[in-house]
Amino acid sequence: MSASKIVISSIWSKVGGKYALVVIGLWLLTAAASLVWTPYPLLDTDGFNVWASPSAAHPLGTDGTGADVLSWLMAGSRTNLLIAVLTVIVAAVIGLALVAAMVSRSGALASTSVVVVDALISIPTVLIALILTVPFGASAAVVVASCGCAYGLNLARILRPSAMLAARSAYVESALWSGASTVRVFFSHIVPNTLPVLCVQLSMSAGTSMLAEAGLTYLGVGVGAGVPSWGHSLSTSVKFISIYPMAVLWPGLIVTMVVVALNLFGDALRDALDPLTNPALREDS
Amino acid sequence: MRFVVKRLVLFVAALIGLSALVFVMLRVLPGDVAAVIAGTNATPERIASLRDDLGLNKPLVAQYGDWMLGLLHGNLGVSAVGGRSVAGQVVTRMSVTFPLIVLSLLIALAIGLPLGCAAVLARSHRLRGLYHGIAIVAGAIPALWGGLLLILLFSRGSGLLGLLPAQGFPDDGWSSPLRALASLTLPALTTGITAGASIMRYTRAAVRDMASSQAVDMAMACGMTRTQAVLRVALRLATPQLVSVIGLTFAQMITGVMVVENLFALPGLGAMLVTDVGNRDLIAVQSELFLLAAFFLLLGLVVDVAHRALDPRLKTAGITSGKATA
């Protein structure tokens, strides 16, 4: 069995991992499906049927413009997928760059980056989003940039101990002496050592970015008004509350289920990737 | 001592850097700030006089200097929309936001600390799984949705139980403390539960690390039960780490606080900031963003210094921050 097969099967072997794979799989399928088909086109509004309760024609009802809530939720899954993936990439790049600076051999660079991270880490996501929104306007890019910065700093701080341990190890020393470049040593010796923690943190970041998107969009500093997203659906559902309270359930339930899945996925991936906790990986090599 | 000085210098540097960032960000706006403030149907003369009043004809560096000097004197500028002083508004609004934050934090601690310790003490595999599940699900609830669910359950009017007011804050503020507290309860629960879940996770991780330390073995060898040893020794050893984690939780809670202030129609700072950003009230936004950033930088500073003071091991290790993995 190849390593990736072992990893996937050991994630699948746990209840939490199974749940995570199923929910994330459904999410990806819905996002892909919404590209070609939604029950109604997003801009198709039914003016005679606004704030409608669920019916056979509109399983989750319609919003204030008469647009189909289910269609918007489906289309929202791809915006949120994009936000999650981009946030993870931005956070990983910022986080790993900072870790590289923190464990570098230049003492000045290392100590400066440590204190810079310490000083900036308490700046909340929403503050970065507000600063960016004033000049650039609300957009998904603002969500990605603010989450990516905040989570990247957090990632650097959490990865530092394990990266530091690896950077001071004998194998890194010997790799450097045998002529490997620092870039190579960083990616092939130091990063793999942080991998278990990195996976958990990145997949938690993906989940937290969903929550941030919902909050920021409600505050008007998230994705733009006409863009489908779960935060958009959730904010719309606030206005439903007096007409059809049950409509409030769906968007929030979807966000919660996906965030739980991403958290469990991170935990399962950590256990599956670490040879210390996953014996199947050891037997293979 | 050297650490504190270094950290203070950095705090001031970060403060200056952030103020410059906020200033530049608000100045790269396409178009004329004065025209934006004056609105679409303003006469050119009105815009010109506004430019003069706001000092927009001066070079950027001078404008930045004026703003900074004003801030140092406690002058946050005058709101372009209401014409009221920003400083006065911030103080009034604080009387709602500050109690809300304190109440949320208390609720979060009341939930997170005991459950986190219980998760460490749980013996059966199933019980540990249950605690883990609670932490993950409670931490995955969007603040907006949590608030809506609490409204549906508890609020007067649309709720099932009809116990607490759904929206608003008494007009006379804290002169009727019980009514004010009642209107803060649901919002504080909303943010408190989510923050409590993350405090629970961190408590579990930190206390579990310490529970396998020699100190706990020693305490048990001296006759303490495992429960006593975990609560008296491991929890105490984990305190420095928990302080810094709670500080961070506090910073991340602020998005939730802004959401609930809007959802529950509370006249707090977060609601004001969002309104001002929406109104493009640049003078107010500029000072408010700076104040918030300064507050959080200060929080980070206090947390770091407290962590250092509580954990003497850091002095010898030369580490500025503890690790915190959930």
TrEMBL record, chain A:
Lipoprotein found in the keyword field: no
GO cellular component: plasma membrane
GO MF terms, alphabetically ordered: dipeptide transmembrane transporter activity
Residue stretches spanning the membrane: 20-40, 81-103, 115-134, 140-159, 243-265
Top-rank taxon, per record: Bacteria
InterPro entries in the cross-refs: BP-dependent_transpt_permease (IPR050366), MetI-like (IPR000515), MetI-like_sf (IPR035906)
Gene3D superfamilies linked to this entry: MetI-like
Keywords carried by this UniProt record: Cell membrane, Membrane, Transmembrane, Transmembrane helix, Transport
Membrane topology according to the record: Multi-pass membrane protein
Record SUPFAM superfamilies: MetI-like
Primary site of residence: membrane
UniProt domain ABC transmembrane type-1: residue ranges: 77-266
Keyword Ribosomal protein: no
UniProt-annotated location(s): Cell membrane
Family annotation (CDD domains): TM_PBP2 (cd06261)
Record-stated family: Belongs to the binding-protein-dependent transport system permease family.
Protein name: Peptide ABC transporter, permease protein
Native source organism of the sequence: Bifidobacterium ruminantium
From TrEMBL, chain B:
Localization in the cell: Cell membrane
Protein keywords: Cell membrane, Membrane, Transmembrane, Transmembrane helix, Transport
Coiled-coil region(s): none
Keyword Cell cycle listed: no
Membrane topology category: Multi-pass membrane protein
Pfam families documented for this protein: BPD_transp_1, BPD_transp_1_N
PROSITE patterns: ABC_TM1
Top-level taxon in the UniProt lineage: Bacteria
Ranges annotated as spanning the membrane: 100-122, 134-154, 180-200, 242-269, 289-306
Family that this chain belongs to: Belongs to the binding-protein-dependent transport system permease family.
Protein name in the entry: Peptide ABC transporter, permease protein
Organism: Bifidobacterium ruminantium
Taxonomic path: Bacteria, Bacillati, Actinomycetota, Actinomycetes, Bifidobacteriales
